[in-house]
Amino acid sequence: MATKKPRRTSTLGTIYQNRAGSFLARYDRDGQRHTPGHTFNTFKLADDWLAAEQVLIARDSWTPPADRRATAEAAEVRDSIILKDFATEWIEKRTTRTGRPLAPKTVREYSSYLTGRLAVLAEMPIVAIDRAVIEGWWQDNADKPPARQTAYMFVKSVLKDATARGLLPANPCQIVNGSRRARVTPKQVRSQLVVGLAPSDVDALVAALDRECFRAMLLLVAYCGLRPGEAF
Questions:
Q1: How confident is the model at residue 80 (pLDDT cuts 50, 70, 90)?
Q2: Cβ proximity of 158 and 90 under 8 Å
Q3: Closest residue by Cα to residue 152 from 183, 121, 125, 184
Q4: What is the mean pLDDT of the chain?
Q5: How are the residues of the chain apportioned to helix, strand and coil, as percentages rounded to the nearest 5?
Q6: Per-residue pLDDT band at 8 (split at 50, 70, 90)
Q7: From the CA atom positions of the chain, what is the Rg in Å?
Q8: Which residue, 2, 112, 179, 210, could crosslink 16 as a Cys pair with Cβ 3.0–4.6 Å?
Q9: Are strands 7-8 and 13-17 parallel, antiparallel or unpaired?
Q10: Cβ neighbours of residue 32 under 8 Å, at least 6 residues apart?
Q11: What is the pLDDT of residues 159-176, one digit of tens each?
């Protein structure tokens, strides 16, 4: 409640003083009344706010103060989201290609990354995770390439979603071949393991198997050219 007569300080607006001694500023524009959303401790601070609003209008860069406050609050909330919280929600809402929730085993595996290999990143705000941070994490985890690769694929997917939601300008996971699984067995060793089988060899292997399903699978692989996943 105002206890003093309004004091006009500029052509833009008016300043009031309430019972508590604080100062309120307001002005009308485009048929609406606009305020800063808070009071000021001194008359000068209130007057400076009106003057700053006048500058925005003169520069044709003015937007309603309420809209600016909403944008700032949204940015503050965005900047406070840490990777662990975002990733946990991502895991909970993630579905398979058929639209089903993730299997409990997959949920446990993904969650373990946040307390394991990704623990350093998990407590960071998502907006602070840039390409340099990811590259530094990649180098720090060179001791276990397989574990690093699976954790990287996970965080890359999570940050891809964060980018789509506008939390990041671009996905910082840009490690060359980072999602490519390295072969443990050297090529020369693999070439020695893969040998051609004659039909008689296939028949001998089939006869040695004690389960019908395994015998059928071996025949499919040998004569139909199926990959292991397709055969299973």
A1: confident
A2: yes
A3: 121
A4: 87
A5: 55, 10, 35
A6: low
A7: 32
A8: 2
A9: antiparallel
A10: 64
A11: 999 999 989 999 999 998
